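Problem 3 from the worked examples.
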Amino acid sequence: MTDGVPKEILIINPLELVFDKKNQIVRRSLDKDTKEWSPELDTSLPINSSDIPNFKEWVNWNGFLFDRETKKGHNGFDFAAYVTTDNRVVLGLSEDTKIRAVADGVVKQVLDTPEAVGGGYGIMINIEHGADDSGMFSTYVHVRPTVYFGVTVKKGDVIGELYKDPKGDEGRLVHLHLSLVSGWGTRGTSIMGGGMHIRTDDPGVIDPSIYKLNAIPQGSSNFSLLDLPNAKVEIANFKQIRVNSG
């Protein structure tokens, strides 16, 4: 690890991967026996690149850096910055960016409490995957939901759009924070309790390419990319942004 940037992604259960004749991973559907996040599951990123004009690739602006023992650090991945087809670097997404379920599941929470999303910074959605009470969730923070509790969703279904502060020269960064948790294969592990049984997983397990380009330093509006050292960062939505690295 260099300057707080992970050089590689932890791949869970790599020996379970199955490849087809074209050396592509064969994805496995989620079912009642699915208990943890792993690379072979039928998943997709929460934002389609085709929904962002001139999108080329994601920047790891604030990635997963979480200590599972102390429960400290950044427990997810912030979809906040990207490179365009003409090699511009943009920090901040459009508020009408569609947020999509990363896998089949059921919406278990739609929370707008201050402690859930940091003082009215959008709304948080929790989707449970696998069997009921599996303890396997995906969490989407800083959104405006278009779904409600109890709705069944399929991978790629739109569940909301991004939250944006009211119009003005200054505002908080428009982005999506995605977290994944696994319940260690135990039934009855609810999203609201049993913290000792829950493992926080790196969203890179869905697609490691989100770590191809790393922002240095992490979580700052003033960052650079080693692969594009001369690129100027363009701030979207506001003249000045406030970032909380979350």
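Problem 4, a separate protein:
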Amino acid sequence: MLSCRSLAFRFDDQSPWILNDLDLTLPPGEFCTILGHNGCGKSSLCRLLSGIYLPSAGSVELDGLSVAELVETGTLSTLVHLVLHDPHWQIIGDSVSQDIELGLRNVGLSGQSLMDRVDWSLSLLDIDGYRDRSVHSLSGGELQLVRLAGAIAVQPRFLILDEALEMIDGARRRRILGTLGDLTKKLQMSVLLTTHDVEDIALADRVLWLQSGRIAMDEPCDIALHSLANAVPQPFDIPGVASLAVRLRGAGKPVSLTLDVEQLVDDICRLNCET
């Protein structure tokens, strides 16, 4: 279990607090999404959870052990893997396959096990065709896919994605969210995704809203969606399908609180058939 207790962070004694008195627990096998606008502390929290930053106060622990200690012993990288918003900062190979291979060698894999893991991660994200391409020929969205494949290949216990899907187009992004949800169930991998796009919470088990360095909401996806859609003023752009679902439920119609258009259409058709 990855956890923060009374976590606070700022860069120095003269800087404002970025995070303040934050408590958070990430259990195994959970898909958690953190919503927040730029400057709310999402990226700092991701770096604290992955040991890049150290707390100014409070603690970050993995199974009761300090993340800072795990960094010093070199064991954290196999347990917690962070994918940053800008993939250029983490690309280390010349070709796609080489980049993923180097990441796996860093955590001790070799031989056929390594090659099988590369094949599996590329296939999982449907980017087998990228294998021999130069990373320098890829677009930003394609590079994000490569970095995600490299992170998934490691099979960490905790995969932290700091707005790491932002450059990927909508349809493929939705498929990847589904894949991440499957990984939490099949591998008991925990996924933490930060975003400012409400559509990204669709398949999350849990949604947090980070506001000014504090957790303003921590709810299951359907309850979070209802709260956000009814908030005045609305803190985020709410997709039309979610707004319609909330209005229908407010009118007494038993439809799902969903971001899935097909699901809502099915619910409406079912209601029409029952009347």
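Solution to problem 4. Residues 104 and 110 are 8 Å apart (CA to CA). The beta strands are 2-9, 19-26, 31-35, 57-62, 65-66, 80-83, 158-162, 190-195, 206-211, 214-220.
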